[in-house]
User: Fold these one by one.
Assistant:
Number 1:
Amino acid sequence: MSTSGHQQMIFVNLPVNDLDASKKFFTELGYSINPQFSDDNAASVVISDTIVAMLLTKPFYSTFTKKQIADSATTSEVLIALSAESREKVDELVDRALALGGSPSGETQDHGFMYGRSFDDLDGHTWEIVWMDPSAVQG
C-alpha cells in the first residue's frame, strides 16, 4: 500500500474480435469510452476512477506479448470480478449484459452476506459482479 497519496489503478487489457461491437456492448452497459486512449486498435473503457478495461484488437494485443492469445470462448484466461453496491445492482448489470448479447456464466452465488452473478462478454471474457454486505467485511 502506498503512503504517497497515489491511488493505484488497474488496467485490464483484453483482446477482442470486433472492437466496434465491444465498444457498443460496454457503453450500453453504462460505461464510457475515454477517447484520449482510444483509436482504431483500442478502446479505453472507464469502469471507475481506478479501473479501466483496455479493449484491444487481436493484432494490436499481440504486439504486447509473445504468447499465443487464448481463445476466450473455449479457454478461461482470467476472471474479472467487479463489486456492486447492492444485490439489485448485480442483477441489473448482469441482466443488461445478457440482453446485449452476453452469455450467462456459472450459477448465481447467494451466501446471504455475499451475492454474485457472472456473464461472458461478446468475446467470452468472464465478468463476475459481486455484492458483499459491508457489515460482513468490517473488522
Number 2:
Amino acid sequence: MLLRPGTGRADTIDQAMSFTGEITASCVINVMTSGQLGVSADHLKMSSKEIGGVSGVAEITTNITGSQIQIVNPSAFTVAPSGADTGSLFSTEYTLTGVTMGTMADGAVATTLLPGVTAMTLNVEAARSDTLYPVGNYTLSPTVRCITP
C-alpha cells in the first residue's frame, strides 16, 4: 500500500531516561606548609611561636554544613632525644580564615565549619617546667581532624 503525504499515521513513543547521582558529605584537608619549632631562651619551651618557629598551614574544604575541625594534640615527640617527652606538656592552637573565621586557643576543641574553603594556621607547643630540653632533633606531629556529620 502506498501512502501519500499527509494521509499516513505517525506514531510517537516517549520513554523517560533517568540519570542518578549522589553527593556525599566530604571534608578534605591539604597540608600546605609544615611548621618549624623555635626554642625559648631558657630552653624550657619549643613552639612554632618562638623565635625561629613557623606556623603550619592547612586548607580544609567541606561541602556540608556541620563539619567540624579539631586538632589531636601530640602526646609525645615523633622524633626526639631520649627522655625529651618526660615532663613535657603538648598543646596546639589555630586560627581559621576563609568561609569560616575564628581563633581557638585550645586546638583540641572542635570548631564548626561552613561549606567551602577555610585556611587554618596551626601552632604547636611543647613545654617543661623545670628541665631543659636536651640537644638534638625534634619533631612534633599533631593531627588535623575533620569530622563530617
Number 3:
Amino acid sequence: MEYYTWVLTFHVVAFMSWMAMLFYLPRLFVYHVENIEKKEFVEVVKIQEYKIYKYIGAPAMWATIFSGITMLALNPILLDFTQNPWMIAKLLSLALLIIYSLSLEKYRKELENDTCKKSGKFFRMYNEMPTMLSILIVGYVITKSFSILFTAIIVILFAYISYVIMKPKKAK
C-alpha cells in the first residue's frame, strides 16, 4: 500500500486529462461541421482534433485504465463486490466512457475524411455524455456507495438536456 496514494494521484491526473479531451473534442466537432464550407478553418480544426485525441486523449485514457488496474492490484478488496457494490456501477460507467472515447476517434476519422453525416446539434448533445458519466463515476467513488436514486436522477437529467438540445426549433 506504500505506493497506492502515488498511483491514485497519477490516476486522478490522468482521468482529468482524459476528461479534458472528452469535453473539448466534441465541441471541435461542432465547429467543424457547422463551418464545413470554410475550408481553411476546417483544416486547422482537423489538426486540433487529431492532436487532442492522439496526444492527450488516448494516452490519458490508457494511463487512467492502467493506473486503475494497478490500484485494484494493490488493493484487491475493492473487487469484493459484496463489500463494494458501488465498484460494479463505477466499472460499468467506465466501460461506457471507454466506448464513448473510442467512438470519438471513429467520428474524428470520419470528419478527417469528410464522410461524417452528423450535425452540430448531434455533437452538442453527444458532448453531454462524458459529463453524465463522470458525475456518476465521481459520485460512486466519493460516496463509496451505489444509489439507484442518484443514478436515475443523473440519467434523467441528462436525457432531458439531450432532448432539449435535439428537439426541433419552433418556426417563428
Number 4:
Amino acid sequence: MLLCALVAMAGCGQTFTSPGSTDIDTDSDIARVRQGAGGTTLGEALRSRRNQEAIVKVNKYIWSASIQVLDFLPIQTVDPFTGVIVTGFGTPPSGGRAYRATVLISDPALDARSLNVALQTRNGPASAAAVRAVEDAILTRARQLRIADNRL
C-alpha cells in the first residue's frame, strides 16, 4: 500500500522525501524544471488532455449559414475550433438600426440546440423576436445548404 502511494505521488510530479532528509537541493530542482529537463508529469499530461477536450466540433452547415445570413455585419473574430463568431456593428439592408452579433455553435448536429445567437443594438440587447428571427434564418439557410450538398 505504501508503494502504491509513493508511485502515485511520483506520477504527479511531487517530490517525496523522508522527514529527516535534507540533502535535496530545491533550487537546482526548480531550475531544472524551468529549463524543461524535468519531463512530463502525470498532472501535466492530464491538464493538457483537458485542454484538448475544449475543442468543439461545429456543424459546417450552421457555420456557413451564420456567415451568410450575417454577411452585412463586419466580422471581428472567428474561431472554428470553439464555434464562436463575433461581429461588429452593422445595419441590415432593410433596417435602420445597427446590430452586433455573437454566434456560438456548440454541437456538430444540425439542430436548433446547437445554435446560440446574442444580438445587441447600440442601446442594449436586441429584442427576443429579433434574436429568434436571426436564429430561424440561420437554421433555414443551414438546412438549404445541407439539401444542396446532398444533391451533389
